Every structure is written in structure tokens, then in C-alpha cells.
From TrEMBL:
Residues 39-100 form the RNA-binding S4 domain. NCBIfam families: rluA_subfam. Belongs to the pseudouridine synthase RluA family. The active site is at D170. The lineage of its organism: Bacteria, Candidatus Falkowiibacteriota. Responsible for synthesis of pseudouridine from uracil. Pfam families: PseudoU_synth_2, S4. InterPro entries: PsdUridine_synth_cat_dom_sf, PsdUridine_synth_RluA-like_CS, PsdUridine_synth_RluC/D, PsdUridine_synth_RsuA/RluA, RluA_PseudoU_synthase, S4_RNA-bd, S4_RNA-bd_sf. GO terms for biological process: enzyme-directed rRNA pseudouridine synthesis. SMART domains: S4. This is Pseudouridine synthase. The keyword Protease does not apply. The keyword Transmembrane does not apply. It comes from the Bacteria. It comes from Candidatus Falkowbacteria bacterium CG10_big_fil_rev_8_21_14_0_10_38_22.
Amino acid sequence: MLRINCVNPVSYYLFLFNSSKPNMSSQMIIKITDQNSSQRLDKFLTKDGSINLSRQQIQKFIKQGAITVNGRTTKPHYLIKMGDSIIINNPLALWLKTTPAEHIDRPPLIRLAVIAETADYLVLNKPAGLAVHGSNNQEQTLADILAAQYPSIKKIGDDPERPGIVHRLDKEVSGLMVVAKTQAAFADLKKQFQQRKVIKQYIALVYGKISVPSGIINFPIKRSAKGFKMAALPITNKKQTNLAGRPAGQSPALAGRQALTEFAVVGNFINYTLLKIKIKTGRTHQIRVHLAAYGHPVVGDNIYSTAKTRMQNTKLGLNRIFLIADQLTFTDLANQKKNYKINLTQELKNVLNKIK
């Protein structure tokens, strides 16, 4: 038996290869150190790259028992601890089971557009098309990029899947986000968001002409029966509501969660309206679902839309949603108010020029 020891500062491997067996039976053992603890098993193995498999493949092999922890079967979301031994049985055989198409080379990490940075936080301009966290495939996420470009941020926060992240933007939406670089800043920013002291402003282009100069949409929001989207519940005279925004006697789970979206018209076009938006709550897809329920879907949105608007989205050639978080205001640890603002991207400016 040939033993190869490979040691690095992060973890070490014992790759055991028995050349006497024709099936090339082997075993790889990864010993977890303190630097690697508190990560999901599947996420760690994907980033580690020791077996060069996609996260989806790794999850499959964990469920099949080909990858175990301390000799016991476990689940992909298991949080690894210092001293754990990850055992990969027949790693070469696992690799050979995957097709060449599944060995996808990851693109280089996107370089973050950092607007401001201090010792406690950084403010960045997230591009459209980048998920904040939780991707189950080979696509990189903001969490991946933060962990790579700011290694010390991995320990910040209350979830290793979301290092330093205190709020989020939809994958299809671009704009300003604040990320904590210290645990003190994380706790303080999280508290500000919970107490709704952070001011978040957005610019959106919607279909149709809104005749009022400003307004408030307060439809409750709940998970749609379709599962992958949300649904807003317009309040009508037929259903009297209580102060929680739901029919008297009905539970929040059935009636939806309270949501509040303020808007002001900043520009009118023949069949479109440009809006400035502030949200008092942060429900999933809140702005998009509220505006669609209000009768004015966001341009570029193919989920909260109609057949007509989806067709128009194609004609406009917009590869994203016309929604950008253009202004963010919060208080730093020195109790100083910080306000950051960005302009529309060139792609969004081109759409405005096209519809004038």
C-alpha cells in the first residue's frame, strides 16, 4: 500500500491507494481543522476542490453514503467540526462516474464594485445576475466572492453560508448592499434592519402610466401556490381587514405577511412610468410582487408579469429587471449617518432612451 501525505495550512489529506485491486479501490481522508469548521459539508468539499466535482454531484454522493463523516453517513448540510474526518470512498471511481459535461470549469470570480470600505463594513454595487447566497449549482454567489476576496469575513455573522451579509437583493436586481466586516458591525446593522431604521431606495421602470404622483402599496404577501414565487393579496371592500392587513380571524400564514411599499413618480412615458421606491419591510420579491399586483409590472420581470409584458420585455432586449437599489442610508458604529448613492447602469439608461 502506498501512502501519500499532503499537508496544507487549511486541512490535510491522507490519500490511500491500493494498487493490488483492479477496481482501483482507494480512500481519501480529510481531517478538519479549526480554520475549516462550521461550514456545510457539501459547500466545503466544493470549494476545497480535492475531488473536482460539482456541488450537485457531491450532494448526490453524500446521500448515497460514498462520502461519510467519522465513518457515518450524514447529510449535505451537516456542519463540519474541528477533528471531523471526512472519508471519501473510491474518489477516483466517483470522479469517473461523472460525465465530462459535469466537470464544469468555474469562471474567474467577479471583482466586486466596492463603493466604500471601512474597518467595519463595505458598501458594494451588486451586479444583476449575481445571487447573494444559496446557489445549488456551479454559479458563483456574492457569498463566495466575499469569502475569497475578504477571507476574514468568513467568521462574521450567524450563518457560514452568508458571511457578513445582513440583507439581500434579488439575483436579477442590482444595486447597493452593505456587508459587515466585524461581528460588532454585523450585530449593529442587523439590529438597524430589524428596527427598520435603514433607508433603502430603489428606481424602477414599470409598465403603464401611473396617474397619481405618489402612493403606498400595503398588500400582504405570502408564498404563491406555485411555490417558486410570491403572491400579493390586494385588500378590497369585500374583505374587511384588521390592523394586521388580513381578514379578521385569519392567520398570517393564510393571509400573508404585512408589507409596505412607498412610491413616487419621477418620470412618465407613453406606456411606462419611472418610479422612486422605498420599502418599509423586506419581504421576498416585495417590490416586484407589489407592483405587479398594483397592475404595473416591473419592466424586464418575466415572473411577476403578463403574457403581454413578457413579449414586450423580449422586444426591449433587456437582459435583467429594471430595478436598482440606488440609495442606502444607515448609521455606523460611531453613530454617524452614512448615505450612499449610485447612478443607473448604462444598460438601464439605454432602455430609457429607447422608450422616449
